[in-house]
Amino acid sequence: xxxxxxxxxxxxxxxxxxxxxxxxxxxxxxxxxxxxxxxxxxxxxxxxxxxxxxxxxxxxxxxxxxxxxxxxxxxxxxxxxxxxxxxxxxxxxxxxxxxxxxxxxxxxxxxxxxxxxxxxxxxxxxxxxxxxxxxxxxxxxxxxxxxxxxxxxxx
Length: 155
Hints:
Elements: H1 2-16, H2 20-68, H3 73-105, H4 109-139, H5 141-145, H6 149-154
């Protein structure tokens, strides 16, 4: 938005002067610059969210797999909740609050929007891990444990 707004006087001057080639060149460069900024912003958001929140899913799954060796599905899920939720909520809350506050502090729209997107993404990731992941692990129990049906029936 900022780059496009900055180009308005240049476009107006060149259109008034009848220099359509310069306007076309400007829009081409503007499109390339906007695409580059968008791509970099997306990479920043994805890298931070993947690095910060995928560990929560790994942690929960590891707890579930470890407890599932000695317990049933329900008990293993409950034990995984007890073992991981304090860590997930503490770390997740810190990410959401810090990035959200930083996003509100910056007046630069690009940085502010990146921070707000990271905060929203972290909230969504925590929600998915708390509400969706346990159901998926219970439904895909055999796959997660790496056992065949015959081997499970023998136990």
